[in-house]
Here is the input.
Amino acid sequence: LEAMAAEDSEERANWPPNRCYWHNGRYYRQLKPYFDRFPREQICIYLYEEWRNNPADVMSGICRFLGVDETFQFDISDKENQTWAGRNEALYKLVDRPNSVKTVLKQIVPKRFFGQFVEKIRRLNRIKPPPLNPALRHLLTLSYRDDILQLQELIGRDLTHWLAPKAKQ
Here is the structure.
């Protein structure tokens, strides 16, 4: 919440796009220029939940859209860029942030072993992040409401489920 609140400040003005948390979630704003410049039939949109529920179908659909072999079997077993939290914050910073200890170890430990060691530490230190605070989720849903409604018109898909309160897990 603090990072999102600071997003428009001068302090964050020169931060890379992957640090613009709230702005990057405004999909209508990001997609509209493409729909303005290209014919609709040249644009293919899939939602994350479609990927999560059936990645093989999404990959086949993308191949069909591109006019390439849609029967190709992609290896979709590896889950990249998963959200996780560090069990120990100091260990997380040691492994995943640039620091002098890592710099020295990289110079004396063979690259293959260093990479395996770092990945082992990451796996041992990972925990599932806590669920999103319901009040924050409600605030985010309200802040994205207009963008979601515009997006569903733009892509011709019902996105009202994005506006509904999330069911308790």
